[in-house]
Write a structure and sequence with these properties.
The protein is an alpha/beta fold and about 300 residues long. About 20% of the residues lie in helices and about 20% in strands. A seven-stranded mixed beta sheet has the order 11-12-10-7-6-5-15, with helices on one face. Strands 1-14-13-2-3-4 form a six-stranded mixed beta sheet, with no helix packed on it. Strands 8-9 form a two-stranded antiparallel ribbon. The protein binds fe (ii) ion.
Amino acid sequence: MDAPRPISTRWLAVAVTFAAACAACGATFRFVQISDTHQGPALHQWRYRKAVSEINALPFPVECVIHTGDIVCNGVNSPEVAGVAAEIFGLIAAPKIMCPGNHDLLFQYSDPTNRFLRSAAAYETFFGPLAQAHETSNALYVAVCTESIRRKAAPALPGFDPLAWLEERLSRSPDKPAFVCTHVPDCDDYRDGSFVPAWENAENLAAWRALLARHPNVVAVLAGHFHRNACVAQADGPPTIVAPCFASFWQRQAAYRLFTYEEGRLSWQDVYVEDPPPGTHINRLGFAVDPADDSPPPAHPVDTAAETNGG
Ligand SMILES: [Fe+2]
């Protein structure tokens, strides 16, 4: 069977819109979501760098860039992987926030509890707090780790309660559109012939959804994890919108998502990132180089510049 052809159309528009009930709904602004960069394979670094350069060159301002997790590909303890991922994220010129995914906070293999706690600590070292927020005159953006509550058996993370953090942060900005970002979507996933909840822990999912319902200014939950598009209307609160990925697994083409909020309506367009020509040699930092020259370039400073909770 022939391999899927990459999508050459620069913009893939989605026509679905939502109305938000909020005092600031008359504003018009844009922001960007990136997800599932899975840093580790050289091609993923290359895609991430190219997308960041394109985002920095957008011909209009963006209020915020949000990374919804799976920043690395099981390498959060490695400076060779997480350090490079943090360096690339730091190149984004706009304000930026992020939260971890299941490939950042690992809960698997032998002694998963200890591995989970150690990877959370490593994540904070390289990327900052487990919940982050950015507020503008137009909107509130939050990125919150839910890995400890959406799994059935994961331990609590010391000093970090995702639900308490989110409740407090949303309560401080009740009159602006709010975008709640996390990694695993709080909706059903259709796979292997049936719909199944993406969150394993039904009790915590109900508490999360009830929290969102108490804040009618939440426009949407923005997530990743599926490595494909999804938009799910939910009867108990805001819809869940799932972004495409950067990772090449399942022969996916990299794309970032450009949101526009205009007079109470949210819409988005996915912007595809073209891969390098076949045969291009990419070094471990994600630069196309001569095969004989694999030396790393100078490092760039890391500056997340996000409001944080210290968790
Ligand atoms: Fe992922």
